[in-house]
Design a protein that fits this description.
Largest sheet: 9 strands, mixed
Distance between the termini: 23 Å
Number of helices: 15
CATH superfamily of the largest domain: Bira Bifunctional Protein, Domain 2
Structural class: alpha+beta
CATH architecture of the largest domain: 2-Layer Sandwich
């Protein structure tokens, strides 16, 4: 392709609203442009990379026995109402009405659509297992789109769905897709980990996220320093064994703590460490009010709370709601004399505390020398806190460390969550009707493109791996006004193109410095510079990633390029 004929609008400076490298570089190098907040156009270079990522995904999914199809982005509300998700999915679901005032949603995901399709077309165990997938645009009304392609309102996704007549069959397919995902991200050249995860709004259980390690990742990975254990911090169980202090129990008393709101402020005011205080937070768990109590140095894990109650929705109660029920606002809540309609649950660590402080459910007051079971009752003790660095690894090997990760893939065992609610059944060998057992498997294709840039860049621009780069070779004619340079560059371009090598030919009438800067910014793996020695048939060949460069005669150029590409396979 000739660069003079392509739309590649490069920028010298970082856009003001681009916070992370992938967002900055994809904009500056002319791969994407913002149309609205969280909505991007993929320009020719971006589309070429996107297509290559998609092809790797397709090859591995096909190899795993999945079959590609395409479903509509516009989905009738009736399907979502069958599963109850029309009300529970939340404000991220983009809803609209047609001219007849019928309700629709733009596809955030396709469980309902695929389940209704298979329900209508498959009725016998003989057609199972069945694995279907698509690569399609998804829509989610993110409250705060940020980080370019990492959190958008419109994005490309590969979603797959499997249907089975037994959990053994689901397990086999799950393993196949899990391995396919590992192959995909390995082929893409990404440094990633597969971690235990929460299924969230998708439902089901037994799920893994594929995380690309990156400091800009919005997810925290808890991993063992001595084994391959890894989990999203939301799902990592705490296995710490607490010891009861032999400190004598003291008499509880109420003390004034004026203007002390946070745990740290209260601890400093009362002159005790954080772990000697109790933190109480009010949650709405579906329709139930729940006061969750943890030690002051621990944080409530709302995912664990949701799983404890097997709830659909868990959210913090507002200060107004809290004050109405408890008689006090945030910062003064505690588990003593709690109204009957409020459940009190506590993290395991609370059970072993002695002579601690807690809110008195009266603004500006706390109790000190509080002891659980003597001074307040707990409906249930459970693992309700986030794991911390230094805690024992849940698999019993080593201790926990943290890393940041970008979620690029997610695999779920859905079970019968959707098939039961939508009456998607099959007849078994005995003619008995049973709900289909399902799996769900997603990859954020456009998000993966951003994750690649986060791991493949330097101070001058992107350093694409050759198998996903928009082109394999960047050919620069430094001065197209000089016949010997233009003629040699034209010849090299024609020769390499005939050999099936993807070449971006910079034939623009620009200064050499502009061409070099744009080439480094775009990040094509190999650069051929046709310059002063063109008359002798010599060019400069440079490896974009390592910076290594050599003068090569045109007669040896093809062989050198093929050697480089074969080495990078």
């Amino acid at each position: 392709m000739k660069q003079s004929e392509m739309l590649i609008p490069t920028l010298r400076e970082n856009p003001a609203d681009a916070e992370i490298k992938s967002h900055q570089l994809l904009l500056r190098a002319g791969f994407i442009r913002q149309t609205a907040s969280g909505i991007y156009s993929f320009l020719p270079l971006g589309k070429r990379v996107l297509k290559k990522v998609e092809e790797i995904v397709r090859e591995e999914m096909d190899q795993a026995g999945a079959h590609e199809m395409l479903m509509p982005a516009l989905q009738p509300s009736e399907l979502w109402k069958e599963t109850g998700r029309w009300n529970t999915f939340g404000p991220e679901l983009m809803r609209l009405h047609d001219r007849h005032q019928r309700e629709f949603a733009l596809g955030a995901t396709h469980e309902e659509v695929i389940t209704s399709l298979v329900r209508d077309e498959v009725s016998s165990y003989k057609k199972l297992p069945l694995v279907l997938y698509q690569i399609q645009t998804k829509f989610r009304d993110e409250k705060r789109p940020r980080f370019g392609l990492l959190r958008g309102r419109e994005f490309m996704m590969k979603d797959a769905y499997s249907f089975h007549d037994s959990y053994e069959s689901l397990d086999k397919t799950y393993e196949k897709i899990y391995n396919a995902y590992s192959n995909i991200f390995t082929r893409l050249g990404l440094n990633f980990r597969a971690v235990i995860a929460d299924s969230g709004a998708m439902g089901g259980k037994d799920t893994h996220e594929f995380m690309v390690l990156s400091d800009v990742g919005e997810d925290t990975i808890a991993y063992s320093d001595q084994s391959d254990y890894a989990a999203n911090i939301e799902m990592a169980p705490v296995v710490t064994e607490y010891e009861q202090s032999d400190e004598p129990l003291k008499e509880m008393e109420k003390v004034a703590t004026p203007d002390q709101k946070t745990m740290a402020e209260v601890a400093e005011y009362l002159n005790h460490p954080l772990e000697k205080g109790l933190k109480s937070l009010m949650f709405k768990v579906d329709d139930q009010l729940v006061l969750v109590v943890t030690r002051g140095d621990h944080d409530v894990n709302d995912v664990k709370l949701k799983n404890l109650y097997q709830a659909s929705i868990v959210e913090l109660a507002s200060e107004e709601e809290t004050r109405q029920v408890m008689g006090a606002g945030f910062g003064s809540l505690g588990p003593i004399n709690v109204p009957e309609e409020v459940d009190v649950v506590a993290d395991h660590a609370v059970k072993y505390t002695v002579n601690v402080s807690c809110g008195a459910n009266e603004d500006g007051y706390h109790y000190v020398n509080v002891n659980p079971e003597r001074d307040f009752e707990v409906k249930q003790f459970a693992d309700l806190r986030f794991i911390k660095e230094g805690d024992p690894s849940p698999d019993g090997k080593g201790t926990i460390k943290f890393a940041r990760g970008i979620e690029v893939g997610h695999v779920f065992k859905l079970g019968t969550v959707y098939s039961e609610s939508m009456n998607a059944t099959y007849l078994d060998q005995n003619g008995k009707s049973n709900p289909m057992i399902m799996g769900c498997y997603g990859i954020g294709v456009s998000r993966t493109l951003a994750a690649l840039v986060e791991q493949y860049h330097d101070e001058d621009g992107i350093t694409w791996p050759h198998h996903v780069a928009p082109f394999q070779v960047h050919l620069l004619a430094l001065n197209v006004k000089k016949d010997e340079q233009k003629n040699l560059a034209d010849t090299i371009y024609e020769t390499l193109t005939e050999q099936g090598i993807e070449v971006l030919y910079d034939d623009r009438k620009e200064r050499a410095g502009v061409k070099f800067a744009d080439s480094d910014l775009i990040g094509i793996p190999l650069r051929i510079t046709v310059g002063k020695r063109a008359g002798e048939g010599y060019v400069e060949l440079k490896d974009r990633k390592t910076g290594q460069q050599d003068e090569v005669h045109e007669s040896e150029l093809s062989a050198r390029i093929q050697k480089f590409l074969n080495k990078e396979q």
